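User: Show me a protein chain along with its predicted structure.
Assistant: Here is one chain, sequence first, then structure tokens.
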Amino acid sequence: MATINKIGLQGKWNLSNAKKENVMNNGKVLGVDFNYSHYHNKRRFSLVIKSCNHGSTYKKVDTINGTKVNGLQVVEAPKKLSTDVALVTNGKFVEGRFVFRQIFVIRSYEIGPDRTATMETLMNFLQETALNHVTSSGIGGDGFGATREMSLRKLIWVVTRIQVQVQRYSKWGEEIEIDTWVDAAGKNGMRRDWIIRDRCTKEIITKATSTWVIMNRETRRLSKIPEEVRRELSPFYIHRIAVASEERDCEKIDKLTDGTAETTQSGLAPRWNDMDVNQHVNNVKYIGWILESVPIKVLEDYNMTSMTLEFRRECTQSNMLESMTCPTERVIGESDNNSVNRKPDLQYTHLLRLQDDKRDVVRARSEWKLKQSQQ
């Protein structure tokens, strides 16, 4: 039995360069029909291109820019390729081997309702750039961003705190350029910073800083940095900061309780796909759960301009979580975490905790500014 399906597409095309005998004014609608048939296990497709003038009869189009259309000789539109393929794929080192750079394009499934990248998207980019940095350095082991000496000792990196400041969220289709580098943080930590620029204008649109420590993969206990690992890392250290000290959110994030939380969302269950290769919930997943308890009016009318995450405990697939949120002034009164330099319109304190025993998983603080469309 044959089945036939017909799909009609319409779009605006600029055909001002078409041959005079077949000129269609700019702004007229070009209809494209795809006819599909299935007969005796054979699939057949046909393409019909037609012009429409809002209800008028169809006009024949023979050529567009000197190329046959109805005759099925169609030129593919030129592809926009980045000038440096390596930057788009795995990235590359710049400034010697101190700074690692990678380019990303904002894709349709990485944007929110306002057609711009989300905080989760940015965090995924930061994570991807960091991992590619380690892999490209030549010291990568078999772990998730671990060095060879770390892998030999069954050690992995865990992030303890990260702050992301966003000046502007990129739109769908825009290109961004991410730089990342590392430096020592005390005796047994490492600091990793990032800067995100608009690929075209070179405007800095996001800055981030984070602190990392080492944990044993099997015992799940924190470890000192072995001297062998330190020797691997130190050639890549650069004394540079992305977030200036006067803008850094370095204050302790206070713990929310049932009495101080304004909103609570319970029953948040990690899925198998939320796990990373270190067998715990991927750090980026926590952001979505944190936002579950943020008032919907805030999500609709405000942009998150800063988020600070303080990781307190691992979370696995067997855990059930609760998300709690409260305006910061209700918890500590006037904030003293340099927010006066960032001038947010709203500031919230958050807590993700295990639902059964109420132990903290992530504490967080977010800052928001009213969207221009709401001003």
